[in-house]
Amino acid sequence: MKTLNYISRLSFYFFFLSFVIPSCRTALINLESELQSLQQADKSWADACASKNVDRMLDSYDIEGYNIDPQGNIHRGKEELRKLWANEFAKLDYSLTWQLNEAHVAHSGDIGYTSGSWDMKFTSKAGKQIEYHGTYLSIWKKQSDGKWKVLVDKS
Question: Is the pTM value of this prediction over 0.90?
């Protein structure tokens, strides 16, 4: 009788654990693949900027995303970001390019950053060629659809 009781309890534990253990398993994240995806998102964002397409630029931002410009001004929300990029793209001979130097994805696979250097050129209203150079750091958030979007853009 003791043996039967022991076997019954053991069977119950195995049965119970067969449901509990799989539910505790977390999805394995391929960090190398996520890193490549993040780097491609940064490149696509640069391509959107090169095309001077405001809508494509805005599409690169998370719904809570914002930009901190070189003067420290914060541009938050789609309308402020739209105004920022429309004003930039309206400058004569405007060009903004950046070079990705570093990218990293957190072990969680849902947050990452890219950083590098940027160059901006345009012609002033007086006809003078203006050039600025600097560095950037962008924090990215992975969306539920798997796409990476900019949460914070600091140049």
Answer: no
